[in-house]
Amino acid sequence: MRGLQKRALATGRSGSSTKPVRAFVLIQTLPGKVAPLVGALERIKEVKGVDPVTGPYDVVVLLEVDELSDISAVVAGTIGGLKWVTRTTTLLCL
After folding, report:
1. Which class for 57: exposed (0-12), middle (13-18), buried (19 or more C-beta within 10 A)?
2. Residue 77 backbone phi and psi in degrees, to 5
3. For 65-94, what is the mean pLDDT?
4. Chain mean position to CA 7
5. What is the CATH number of the domain that holds 31?
6. Residue 45 is part of which domain span?
7. Structurally, how many domains does the chain consist of?
């Protein structure tokens, strides 16, 4: 097991009374910019996993935050603001 699967199983906070809000973010990027994007994403504290992928998207990110409203702030404000990101799709975990 590697990447997001392994990190998703390893996440969780001991002593927390509320369950964190998790989401997967599918990211499209400019050609040839996957590596620098992955490096930038790994420095975002809410990002719990980053994996380059094949297909219509270039990178998949696992986010974990305390409140649902924080997802929007991180995706639109932080991730969407990175210069290599051209499009994002957010999938909330149930």
Report:
1. middle
2. -85, -45
3. 96
4. 12
5. 3.30.70.920
6. 20-92
7. 1
* pLDDT(91) > 70: yes
44-77 pLDDT per residue, tens: 999 999 999 999 999 999 999 999 999 999 999 9
In a domain, 62, yes or no: yes
- Report how far Cα 20 is from the mean position of its chain's Cα atoms: 14
Give which of 29, 20, 16, 15 is closest to 62, Cα–Cα: 20
Tell the burial category of 12 from Cβ atoms under 10 Å away from its Cβ (0-12, 13-18, 19+): exposed
Dihedral in degrees, nearest 10, Cα atoms 20, 92, 51, 76: -90
